[in-house]
Amino acid sequence: MKVGGKPYRTIWLDDDGESVVVIDQTRLPHAFAARTLLDAADAADAIRTMIVRGAPLIGATAAYGVAMAMRDDPSDGNLLRACDDLVATRPTAINLAWAVARLRQPLLHAPRASRAELAYRLAAELCDEDVAINEAIGDHGAAIFAARWRDLGETKPLTILTHCNAGWLATVDWGTALAPIYKLHDEGVPVHVFVDETRPRNQGAGLTAWELKSHGVPFELIVDNAGGHLMQQGEVDLCVVGTDRVTADGSVCNKIGTYLKALAARDNGVPFYVALPSPTIDWATDHGADVPIEDRGAREVTHIWGRDAKGSRVEVALAPEGALARNPGFDVPPPRLVTGLITERGVAEASKEGMQALFAAKAA
Ligand code: MRU
Fold first, then answer.
1. 136 has pLDDT over 80
2. pLDDT over 70 at 195, yes or no
3. At residue 216, what are phi and psi to the nearest 5 degrees?
4. Residue 244: active-site member
5. Closest of 154, 184, 151, 202 to residue 275, by C-alpha
6. DSSP secondary structure letters along 73-89
7. Ligand 1 pocket residue status of 244, Cβ below 6 Å
8. What is the 3-state secondary structure (H, E, C) of 199-223?
9. In this predicted structure, what is the pLDDT of residue 360?
10. Which stretch of DSSP H or E encloses residue 72?
11. CA 275 to ligand 1: nearest atom
């Protein structure tokens, strides 16, 4: 996507052809700054501290982390250590383990002298694939959303509610949930996006709002608790979110708060779509209840980061000192609340059979 008229992906190789450059998402929306990752430890740190985040992008970053590890020491021991360290950075998004596994096997079978070159090639292929997948999600989603707009009589902009950030910042490019929105907007279909702020880290307020503003897509930021009310008022035509892991039964794990939006959507007859690339499907886990849910600690709940009047990035306390807080990072709407899974191969019912119909070979 373009920032200030210049096309960007979220991850690319530096001029030396070895170091990896990412957009530092902890500094958005107030500063658009690149950050160079020099080795596998830097890549792991960037994922852990959420300099990069979003399921597909943490997979891509881990892939380049493996590549930098192979450049530094292509031994089996270092390969396995780097893979384990990278996978351990965050527990919930399956794309991370998927990306690392995609490099680990071929590298273990390759001669040591060619491992670095192979690893960089595989990481680059994974990134290119992510871009193509997300663009296809955009096309399939845009067709469904345009049909909804036509069904509603085309009298006003299509209103879409989204939660967290499943835009281009969460992927290598395009995004998942936001890809259909960008496509529709670019095709001239009027859209209006309700952006959940997404406490506690505010990926909606800081990242989705920044992305949509940069692209010129009309939106309003809302507090997390406003979505249900807007749905009751008939102000939301559809919801679309991303996901960090879809289990074999069609349960969709996503940022905390997604479940409540899915419930409100069902109660109000609002279609609730989940957009995902196929690497987000975890065929090996049968039920949503078995997804490991990340706990990022109390401080994200008791404190908040923002920019002060002087332009400095500051953290302020929200709660009384010593307040106990719980911070589960994700929840898992069950398949019965999902209208459809928008994938690169089209739309599937949120069920094993639905997903198998599109991805038969992978489901075996
Ligand atoms: O904790 P985050 O910011 O990595 O969580 C991101 C999300 O929950 C996204 O909605 C999900 O990864 C889908 S991204 C295409």
1. yes
2. yes
3. 80, 20
4. yes
5. 184
6. --SHHHHHHHHHHHHTT
7. yes
8. CCCCHHHHHHHHHHHHHCCCEEEEC
9. 79
10. helix 55-72
11. 15
Q: From the CB of 302, is ligand 1 less than 6 Å away?
A: no
Q: Residue 304: is its pLDDT beyond 60?
A: yes
DSSP-assigned beta bridge partners for residue 35 = 22
C-alpha 275/C-alpha 138 separation (Å) is 9
The Å distance, Cα 16 to ligand 1 centre, comes to: 30
Tell me which residue has its CA closest to atom 15 in ligand 1.
166
Q: In this structure, what are the phi and psi dihedrals at residue 206, rounded to the nearest 5 degrees? A: -90, -35
* Helix runs in 109-249, H state only: 112-151, 179-187, 203, 209-215, 227-232
Cα separations in angstroms, 255 against 37, 100, 259, 342:
26, 22, 9, 17
Is residue 54 lining ligand 1, measured as CB closer than 6 Å? yes
Q: Find tokens 């590298």 and name the residue.
A: 107
Domains of the chain, earliest start first: 2-129 (1.20.120.420), 134-363 (3.40.50.10470)
Say if ligand 1 is within 6 A of residue 242 CB: yes
User: Residue 361 pLDDT > 80, yes or no?
Assistant: no
For residue range 309-332, list pLDDT tens digits in order: 999 999 999 999 999 999 999 999
pTM of the predicted model as reported, rounded to 2 decimal places: 0.97
